[in-house]
């Protein structure tokens, strides 16, 4: 018994002194993320990617349409999506929630909003509600401007809703950048335009705009007041608990995202560079984000990320 006790004690001491076990299995090293080309999600996904890289993981981020993202999560071709806007995207998520193939794991932002917007001069001229659009078809050219194809279903649904009297209207789909470029062109000449607006986004500072009421049944109450959530494929949190811990810690705020998105849109920075700049400007967020998180090989996660950022 003495010999066994001594060997056990020696083993415990050796384990404590030796290298730590890997926090996640080898299959978790590559973390497959996706975002649909929206700058808020490009920025937050960039943050996650920079942190994962600093922890010794190999983040692989792809640009995909919303429907493709959900199909890829269901098929286990993707691991993480950080951009589920609730309630605006309830319709997209409903089938995947029902079959359990995509899991919502964390609310990463509150204070967001998402609905129709117009320039302030259009609002001042009497367009306060989505129902007001039908009063001025010629002013708008019977067009409303959206973002990427696959991300504007609510606009199409509103056009089909007879209570808005928008028969014959069209949704112009391009991209976030393309839509905002068109908005700025219209504003420069004081022409009328209605478009998808949301916060966080620098557009709220760059353009004098107003949000339209009337979309509660589609975008949610209070001008599309929303929360944003992180989602993963079924079973991912059990398979990769260390990455799951990081995802559970990652919580953003509107001012942080406004600034970060400004780096992307106004400064032309890549998502990883914008994320790095943001983290260096406000490194105290790392304490909460990396609490209980290790590197891929089981070492101090906070120290590793700070070293990778040169802090």
Written account of the structure:
The chain has 17 helices and 9 strands. The chain is globular, with a radius of gyration of 23 Å. The model is unreliable at 1-21 (pLDDT under 50). The chain has helices at 2-17, 39-54, 66-74, 90-99, 120-124, 137-140, 153-160, 176-188, 203-206, 216-219, 221-224, 236-239, 241-249, 254-265, 271-281, 285-289, 301-309, and strands at 30-35, 58-63, 80-86, 102-119, 143-145, 170-172, 195-199, 209-211, 225-233. With 311 residues, it is an alpha/beta fold. It has 2 domains: 25-111 and 226-309, D-Maltodextrin-Binding Protein, domain 2 (3-Layer(aba) Sandwich); 113-225, 3-Layer(aba) Sandwich (D-Maltodextrin-Binding Protein, domain 2).
In short:
The protein is of the alpha/beta class. It is built from 17 helices and nine strands. The chain has helices spanning 2-17, 39-54, 66-74, 90-99, 120-124, 137-140, 153-160, 176-188, 203-206, 216-219, 221-224, 236-239, 241-249, 254-265, 271-281, 285-289, 301-309, and strands at residues 30-35, 58-63, 80-86, 102-119, 143-145, 170-172, 195-199, 209-211, 225-233.
Share of helical residues: 40-55%
CATH superfamily of the largest domain: Periplasmic binding protein-like II
Structural Rg: 23 Å
- Apparent shape: globular
In what range is the share of β-strand residues?
15-25%
Going by CATH, the architecture of the largest domain would be 3-Layer(aba) Sandwich
- Main structural class: alpha/beta
Q: Strand count, sense and closure of the main sheet?
A: 7 strands, mixed
Number of strands: 9
Give the end-to-end Cα distance, rounded to a whole number of Å. 50 Å
Task: Provide a count of the helices.
Answer: 17
User: Low-confidence stretches at least 5 residues in length (pLDDT < 50)?
Assistant: 1-21
The structural domain count equals 2
The helix/strand series, from N terminus to C terminus, equals HEHEHEHEHHEHEHEHEHHEHHHHHH
Under the CATH scheme, which class of the largest domain? Answer: Alpha Beta
Pfam families: OpuAC (PF04069)
Domain ABC-type glycine betaine transport system substrate-binding: 30-279
Signal peptide: 1-22
Organism: Dongia sedimenti
């Amino acid at each position: 018994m003495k010999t066994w006790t001594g060997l056990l004690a020696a083993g415990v001491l050796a384990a404590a002194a030796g290298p730590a076990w890997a926090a996640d299995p080898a299959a978790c090293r590559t973390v497959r993320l996706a975002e649909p080309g929206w700058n808020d999600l490009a920025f937050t996904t960039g943050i996650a990617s920079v942190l994962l890289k600093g922890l010794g993981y190999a983040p692989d981020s792809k640009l995909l349409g919303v429907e493709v993202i959900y199909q890829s999560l269901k098929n286990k071709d993707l691991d993480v999506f950080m951009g589920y806007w609730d309630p605006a995207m309830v319709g997209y998520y409903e089938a995947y929630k029902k079959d359990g193939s995509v899991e919502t794991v964390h609310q990463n932002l509150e204070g967001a909003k998402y609905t129709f917007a117009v320039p302030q001069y259009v609002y001042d001229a009497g367009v306060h509600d989505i129902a007001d659009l039908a009063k001025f078809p010629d002013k708008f050219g019977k067009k409303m401007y959206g973002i990427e194809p696959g991300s504007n279903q609510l606009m199409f649904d509103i056009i089909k809703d007879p209570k808005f009297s928008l028969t014959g209207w069209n949704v112009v789909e391009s991209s976030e950048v393309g839509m905002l470029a068109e908005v700025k062109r219209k504003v420069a000449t004081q022409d009328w335009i209605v478009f998808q607006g949301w916060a966080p986004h620098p557009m709220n500072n760059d353009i004098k705009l107003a949000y339209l009421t009337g979309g509660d049944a589609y975008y949610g109450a209070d001008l599309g007041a929303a929360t944003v959530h992180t989602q993963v494929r079924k079973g991912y949190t059990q398979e990769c608990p260390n990455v799951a811990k990081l995802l559970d810690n990652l919580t953003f705020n509107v001012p942080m995202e406004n600034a970060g998105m400004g780096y992307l849109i106004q400064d032309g920075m890549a998502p990883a560079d914008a994320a790095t700049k943001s983290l260096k400007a406000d490194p105290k967020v790392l304490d909460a984000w990396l609490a209980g998180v290790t590197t891929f090989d089981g070492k101090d996660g906070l120290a590793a990320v700070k070293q990778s950022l040169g802090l």
